Amino acid sequence: MREARPLRPPHLSLSLPSSACTPGWMGSGRPWHRGPQLCQGPAQSWGDWGGGGIAPVPLMLFPRPGEVSTTAAELYSKVRILCWVMTSPSNLETKARHVQATWARHCNVVLFMSSVQDDGFPAVGLDTKEGRDQLYWKTIRAFQYIHQHHLEQADWFLKADDDTFVVLDNLRWLLANHTPEEPVYFGKRFKPYAKQGYMSGGAGYVLSKEALRRFVEGFRTQVCSHTTSVEDLALGQCMEKMGVRAGDSRDAAGRETFHPFGPESHLTGKFSKSFWYWKYCYYPIVEGPQCCSDLAISFHYVNPELMYTLEFLTYHLRAYGYRYRYQPPLPENAARLLQRQGRPKAANATLLVQGTKKL
Amino acid sequence: MISESSSFVKGMVLGGLFCVFVTLIGHIKMGHGTKAQHHEHHHIQAPNKEDVSNLSEGERMELSHSIRVYCIILVKPKDLGNWAAVKETWSKHCDKAEFYSSESVKVFDSVVLNTNDVWMMVRNAYKLAYERYKDEYNWFFLAHPTTFAVIENLKYFLLKKDASQPFYIGHTVKSGELEYVDDDGGIVLSIESLKRLSKIFEDPDKCPEQGGLIWKLSEDKQLAVCLKYTGVFAENAEDSEGKDVFNTKSVGSLIKEAMANHPQQVVEGCCSDMAITFNGLAPNHMHVMMYGVYRLRAYGHNFKDALVFLPPAGSDND
């Protein structure tokens, strides 16, 4: 019987037993509800260190008291996501550390990509310089590194900045309806400069395994090259050349899930009509509460304090007993993945517009 | 020698008796006119899991409807931005919410109190609320427009608490001998407490309109003094882990403190998952909280709750 320990530490453990399925304990000594895959993942082989430090396998977070379903845990094992975070030596302690302490814990694998290797953090050294003009170089090298050392560890590959906040469980919800063999990538879709559009770098974007293969292949065959340092546009152009589809990441009610700004801006801001944003968005912009899906996947320009605040609002604070308005049906592919009864595609998202009459 | 020690003993005995006498007098004065329990520990907890399991859907609905919360929000014209935000956000989840303003304001309806003095506003608001709604609501929640409240979590907290008992709940502070609820975190009174309060308002010695003896007490301290005379004592509300559920600061402030004080466990150590209030929010932040509490969530985490609350009609930000 494990001794009671204080609040679960977010840090990652480097030494893993081959199958650690011990339950965690709350500070008060009461056990959390147990479920099937609520334990550390299988031990990874540390042999392939490649060029630099690699992040240990993150612990699957235990469910909260009173939580009854294991859907999130099932999706964790069936939709494996490798997250890589674009950072730099000077940002490791001021920004990347807070990503590491919050949403990165929900990734199946997480790698912090910097120009210089840092074994203590740990961060991979991409052997580039730093600066905005290096962003695409870093991106290319990062994906090549991942393709070489981590391809089999995940099905999907997410890129985020160290000021992006991501809700991995909602990303799994989106991706559950697709397969890693599809040549597709998702993010906040922008329209200029590329026929099928491209994905905003700051809002984060995710490539299927096939998309990653094609990206790396594109550079190997020189179909793709370092055309510009504007990382997101350049990647989008390469994707287009390699036949990778720019996906539609909006929810079943047509609301955006990847966000290039913070929640306050999207929910309350009124963008001036001359602001570039209006011309860039692939889908019509909605201001106010309908800007953003309940199952939002990302926000950008998130400072450390907001990082923890969003983690608290997403994973901790809730309204007890509240029946959410947005109750999306389980799409066909996702149902198959989870071996559940799905509803036919025709069923639209049910938005509870008529609430109960006030007493 | 013997006579000296006997004087000494007599002195000690007399002194002791005198001490006991004075203490007794003190107690009698305090407890005058009440038989109420003096809550021993002044902390009050949210329900346990055992209290809430195994109810049918019908029972859940019935239970949810039985807890009826009336919200009083005290406002002044300078609070217009926050007033609007509260109106558009959390107050929609009260069974009924009314704004009690110091003076009439063109843009919004309110119950006009015609006074700028906060203690008078508190008195009059409670008086009016009791007169009008004593038969319709069993819990009364008072807040400032800088407060964000999650009424569903308040109702969960009040589950199994008998409103015919004198409850006076919130984030408590001790000031000398007086324990009072800090109104920055919101104040909850049961109908019984409100009833007793209404009575003591009529006693100008125990509960004067002009505040404290030598200097003016803040309105929340004054409220505690009046309630104490009726045998109602403040209780600090906590969740099952001992964390406060009424907060006098915003999430952001509490997170900042956690980052400084326990950086290894910021989110887990900051605040209660079942928090009822936060304070010090600007209007924009209320909209973000609304989204964060009633909409934003991580897919795949489901809960078996004892209560059921449906979204209110005519609203799209929750």
UniProtKB/TrEMBL annotation, chain A:
Main location: membrane
Reactions accelerated catalytically: an N-acetyl-alpha-D-galactosaminyl derivative + UDP-alpha-D-galactose = a beta-D-galactosyl-(1->3)-N-acetyl-alpha-D-galactosaminyl derivative + UDP + H(+)
EC number: 2.4.1.122
Recorded name of the encoding gene: LOC112123665
Gene3D superfamilies the record matches: 3.90.550.50
Topology of this chain in the membrane: Single-pass type II membrane protein
Cofactor(s) listed in the protein's UniProt record: Mn(2+)
An example Gene Ontology molecular-function term: nucleotide binding
Pathway: Protein modification; protein glycosylation
GO cellular component: membrane
InterPro entries: C1GALT1/C1GALT1_chp1, Fringe-like_glycosylTrfase
Family (UniProt): Belongs to the glycosyltransferase 31 family. Beta3-Gal-T subfamily.
This protein's UniProt keywords: Disulfide bond, Glycosyltransferase, Manganese, Membrane, Metal-binding, Nucleotide-binding, Signal-anchor, Transferase, Transmembrane, Transmembrane helix
Biological processes annotated in GO: angiogenesis
Intracellular or extracellular location(s): Membrane
Protein name: N-acetylgalactosaminide beta-1,3-galactosyltransferase
PANTHER family referenced in this protein's UniProt entry, alphabetically: BETA1,3-GALACTOSYLTRANSFERASE (PTHR23033), GLYCOPROTEIN-N-ACETYLGALACTOSAMINE 3-BETA-GALACTOSYLTRANSFERASE 1-A (PTHR23033:SF9)
Enzyme class, UniProt record, top EC level: transferase
Every Fringe-like glycosyltransferase domain range: 82-246
Automatic annotation (TrEMBL), chain B:
Single biological process term from Gene Ontology: protein O-linked glycosylation
A GO CC annotation given for this chain: membrane
Gene Ontology molecular function: any one: glycoprotein-N-acetylgalactosamine 3-beta-galactosyltransferase activity
Annotated compartments: Membrane
Keywords: Membrane, Signal-anchor, Transmembrane, Transmembrane helix
Domain of life: Eukaryota
Signal sequence coordinates: none
PANTHER family with a match to the protein in the record: BETA1,3-GALACTOSYLTRANSFERASE, C1GALT1-SPECIFIC CHAPERONE 1
Family designation: Belongs to the glycosyltransferase 31 family. Beta3-Gal-T subfamily.
Name of the featured protein: C1GALT1 specific chaperone 1
Name of the gene: C1GALT1C1
